[in-house]
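INFO batch 0412 | record 1 of 1 | parsing
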Amino acid sequence: MFGSRLVRAAALAVAFSLAVSGCAAEPDPEDVDARASSIDVLPTEDVGKVLVDGEGAVLYVFAPDLAEAVSCTFTCATNWPPFVASENVTPDAGDGVDQALLGSVENPSGGEVITYNGWPLYRYAADKEPGDHTGQDRYLNGGDWFVMAPSGKPRTS
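INFO prediction complete | emitting tokens
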């Protein structure tokens, strides 16, 4: 009996902690404009061609999104910042990027997130240099993360 109360108390503490820490800061408009200006293709040695933002940061998808909606919000978005769209602006499609696959979807935290083939796109905070893709095929923040290929399909291997 004492054990079940302890488990419930711990669960409530975790839920409260997540709710309190769930406040997301607004993205810096300068950061949004520079990164969201274009989407390009970058060849990599280990996973092939991947999509990158205007500054060369590799773009990822979150498997739980199911190419439908943004589900990585609040605390999750601290590790995986969404690729936020500038107001009323769709990024330019670089060579190898299909403009028809670009779009956006509402972010529950505010604003719009750029999508590719319906998948909301994110960056990984642990990627420090252009072209880094250390988040590939990782299970973090409640789901699997994959780089996005120019075909519009996540690179799941």
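INFO post-check: The chain has three helices and nine strands.
INFO record closed
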